Task: structure prediction
Amino acid sequence: NRIINYKIPVEFYTREHKTYLGRKLLIKGRIKNSKFANRPNLLTGNIIETDPGSTFLGTVLFSVRGYIDSMLKSLLMNEHYDLGTGLILGGSGRLKKDLKDVFVRAGVLHILAVSGLHVGFVCMFVGFILIFIPISARIKFFIIMLVLCLYTGITGFRPGVCRATLMAFLFGLSLILQRNVDGVHIINITAIIFLLINPLLIFDIGAQLSFSAVYGILFLYPIIENSIIKRINVKLYKFIMTSMAVSFSAQLSVSPLLIYYFHRLPTLAVISNLIIVPIASITIFLLFFCLIIGTFSFMLAKMIAVLISILLSILIIISKLFAGIPFSTITLYISPIILLLLYFIYSRRLRKLAIYSIIIISIFLSISSLSDCVIIKTGTAGTLISTPYGENIFITSRRSKVQTAVFLANQNIEKLDYLAATENHYPVEKKFFELPDKLHVKRIKFGKMTINVSDNINIIFREKKITLDNSDFKYYEEEENLSYILTDGKDVQKFC
Result:
């Protein structure tokens, strides 16, 4: 046996929601290759031992994040603690699946992404404290950037907060040097620096969404401001339209990415953000203030936490109201070529070419889709089959009505024609078929199209292939009006 020392960057995902920032982990497992360019090596295994980080920076980051985590846990309830931690440290991994789905459908999940809003609050807090200290502006700027770098490390160096911190540094540097720099130049320089440090960030979804949102605001908002907002004289209306214009610019810019990666598009995001973002901003401000006060007086921090809990409850209630509106999120499957052409509309020179190309490609895709087709969508709740005749068939082995309702809502399905399940837990218009607990599908037939399961069942996952024999199946002679057979290996149910 030989011990080989080899250094290679890997990614490890743990099921436990613990803070490991700045600590050394002893993990026993295997390194596997990944097909994704931005994450070539994945480490699968178990954490055997954890030790405090030996570096000073690692110890500081771990201590500060541990203080934030323990303070919020002692001040807030479980559901509010998960949401509050996500608001101040970023990330939606702590949220329960149902609550996370609510934020996705309402189009406000981005409030859990640490970005320029959080960086702005940190700058405001530190800048307010430094007002009373008689030092030069350059030293104040250096202190603010030092605190921002510390906050970036506490949040785990997420692309959004790194982008906002670097943009804040470049913008502050331009003010100190008394240079008039365009915001587009700052975001371009930031993107170049990011790619020079880590070229694989171009494949990172978080980085793509973060930069796309900023580019959308810088390009589209001035157009909307000159065309609409400047003509409004009432201050209240002007403030509302400005907020909606910023949200619309960012949403329109990230929409192609949302459709490409998640096949979802929030339709009410502009309106929901108009209400939820101000509440989230006040909540984030109070969270920062509460953490600072908590270092001096826990009782005073507890009083502030009551107000934070009320705001978090309001945030959840409003998000659920928007998520419950029909078609608050639509499911779209659009060709990546069309999504790419949408970004060329920003360029005046390529705008006409992009529009004509989108129209021509859409016509060809529409003509090719005129033939009858069956759409099959599979999720954790079950399988949805949509026939060319507009009928919806849902097959599931689960008994949860909530999971079924959420899955169907995500697919914009308001009614079911047929339900095949272990029990009738969802209303259907035509017929319910009771399924056995263990299910094997032998044949599915739609009109002239027949899908047969071969004698051997092959399960393929990436390069791995597992073959199962067909000993559990019973063979029956094909009947003229037989559509498919459902069997658990003992009893057989025939549906025509």
